[in-house]
Amino acid sequence: MIRDLNDTLVFVCVVRLGSFTAAAHALQIPKTTVSRRVRELEQAIGVQLLRRTTRQLSLTEAGAVYYEQCKSIADTLEHAERAVHQLRDGPRGWLRVTVPFSFGVSWFAPLLAGFRQAYPEIRLEILASHVPMDLVGEEIDVALRLGALPDSSLIARRLASFPTGIYAAPEYLARHGTPQTPEELLHHQTLTLHQARRDVGYVWPLRREGGRLRDYRVEPSILANDPALLHDALLAGEGLSLAMDQSMQADVQAGRLIRVLPEWIGPPQDLNAVTAREHLPSPKVKALIGYLKAYMPDGVA
């Protein structure tokens, strides 16, 4: 039989605070009511839970067992109440976000600044990493990740899709010439991500607008596991790189990079906001995801 849960919660509060008086103050009910509810609980389950003296309150053996089993119920209800208060009070508090190193670009920082202006009671902790972090173990609220997400224990919300193209520094093109067709890429130095590997070797998928992607062979001079590592080599004139257009925009405008084979397009890179499946999104998480989806740079959402 299920007993009155309120009586159990009153009992847990008494044990935690160490007295009927303190529990009465915390629960904002008369001390006599606290005493009566604990007594009725003991009568209902047929055992004494507390030893009462004029100086001390202590648990019986049965009371200790009952308390250990019931305190998690009280904790769950407290968490639920805090979640409801968050909904009522709006987004606030620390928001822990992980992003790829390659997001250290001029268009992303203003987005975060705009988010902070829109939600001044949210404080951001940004963790940059070139490898996916354990969202639960590292207490990450949101992870921004590019590309496919093989981990089915996570929930992904697509924010944008970034087009990609081929780029090079003017210094590299001055030394090695500019390729005129994708087939010529095989004879150039290329800066390539590890995942470009296929059975036939390393390839870049490319297409003309309106056409289908086709794999073109490349011979990497530098391999890396993060686009940011390739970016420095690209600026140094070490080769050609297939990269997100949005990440290259500032360098192109400054004359540090040139778009090569501009009529050829690489595969789009999806940006996802990822959260752990076991947690319901909090108001602050929903605020960040909604803001990023609404204010991503034009043409990529």
From TrEMBL:
Belongs to the LysR transcriptional regulatory family. CDD domains: PBP2_CrgA_like. It comes from Pseudomonas kribbensis. InterPro entries: LysR-type_TF_proteobact-type, LysR_HTH_N, LysR_subst-bd, WH-like_DNA-bd_sf, WH_DNA-bd_sf. SUPFAM superfamilies: Periplasmic binding protein-like II (SSF53850), Winged helix' DNA-binding domain (SSF46785). Keywords: DNA-binding, Transcription, Transcription regulation. This is LysR family transcriptional regulator. GO terms for molecular function: DNA-binding transcription factor activity; sequence-specific DNA binding. One of its GO terms (biological process) is DNA-templated transcription. Pfam families: HTH_1, LysR_substrate. Residues 1-60 form the HTH lysR-type domain.
